[in-house]
Amino acid sequence: MAKREYTKDEVRQMVKDEDIRFLRVMFTDLLGKIKCVDLPVSQLDKLLDNKIMFDGSSIDGFVRIEESDMYLYPDMATWLVFPWGAEHGKVARVICSVHMTDGKPFPGDPRNNLKRVLGDMQKLGFKDFNIGPEPEFFLFKLDENGHPTTTVNDQENYFDMEPADRGEDCRRDIVLALEKMGFDVEAAHHEVAPGQHEVDFKYANALEAADNIQTFKLVVKTVAKKYGLYATFMPKPLSGINGSGMHLNMSLFTQDGKNAFYDKDDKYQLSQTAYHFLGGLMKHARSFTAICDPIVNSYKRLVPGYEAPVYVAWSTSNRSPLIRIPSDRGMGTRLELRSADPSANPYLAIASVLEAGLDGLRNDLPPVHNINENIYTMSAAERKEKGIVNLPDTLHNALKDLAADEVIKGALGKHIYTNFMEAKTQEYDGYRQHVSGWERSKYMKY
């Protein structure tokens, strides 16, 4: 159920009742970075009337300088009050969509783009696309100058707990802050790697889920800083240990509120809708990897031996494939995409996997490669015999797959796709030209 949008009068009353002095107006750029404009509360009416203007030419992937004037339209269903900073009056946050001077939604805004793809879903008769994200992150110590080091705060393992540890206290306060902001936190625990943590919050409809991911990142970084720690959502900050993923649990719901992926009479209790949606995910997996794993470092995580998926397959009974079908059925029936990582722009990632699934529905695509054995133990010949292909192993190869896939390009729209490809090609070129310490230690002898 989507959150209710507050009326203007309700917002004005909340500002008065809670002594709100500042407004943090947020949106997301092409690369998934949170952008914000801080306003004194005296500008509230201007915000409510969609009159907050900014320079779009200064935002990565937006517009040229001669088209720079843009407006922020607040979504009052995202209004919340931060649980910190009250010493100078409370700070309220609202997430905005970007509009052009003629009032039309800006197609280069990732949030607007997700709304567009959700419109495609609704045309096929579905009401909601629910997403349950599982973002992971690392906590690192800071040096004497306040800069992040590569030293983790603990040497714990999966589900471990170290009494009076700063990481445990930090994670606890992250959960408390999220709950004060209205999050329904389901679990919080130490992950497999030293210094690595995960906080799981309840699923929501796709737009709200993407908003929640961005808010979650902001809360984690803010609380970590209070503990003298640095939180990073970089997928693979250290060699030799597991990286951070952001599994996406997804399900479609019908107009009457039923889970469209569930069929009690099927062998796996999955509907034909689920199978065809899964078929679309399988067909387009290599292409949407560029969006769900969008940085050079993402591909240091997607390697064998560290629990991250490497092969395009699905299963109901093991965790080695790209897509897992968790055991819950009924309203909890869902598909879990395990490749995405938390560096992804959540609005673009969700739009791409949704459009992939919808393509499966439109074309009755079969869900090939149901693999119930451990793929990691298979030989290359065995995988080839079963038709299992690898995910792309570099950002460069992922971008090539994206460029050849009209469906996933369509999930981004022309403006976002063009600017995304340009930005990511430049990123990979910069990486390709950099000489690393590993290379010097390996090859200086030549």
Helix-strand pattern: HEEHEEEEHEEHEEEHEEHHEEEHHHHH
What is the chains' assembly state? single chain
Low-confidence stretches: none
Euclidean distance between termini CA atoms:
63 Å
Radius of gyration: 22 Å
Q: Could you report the average pLDDT, rounded to the nearest whole number? A: 89
Which percent range fits the helix content?
A: 25-40%
Overall strand count: 16
The number of helices is: 12
Strand content: 15-25%
Biggest sheet details: 10 strands, mixed
| Structural class based on helices, strands and sheet pairing | alpha+beta
Structural shape: globular
Keywords:
446 residues; alpha+beta; ten-stranded mixed sheet; six-stranded mixed sheet; 35% helix; globular
Structural summary, described in words:
- By secondary structure, the protein is an alpha+beta fold.
- The chain is 35% helix and 21% strand.
- Strands 7, 8, 9, 10, 11, 12, 13, 14, 15 and 16 form a ten-stranded mixed sheet that branches.
- A hairpin with a 5-residue loop joins strand 7 and strand 8.
- Helix 4 packs across helix 5 and helix 8 runs antiparallel to helix 11.
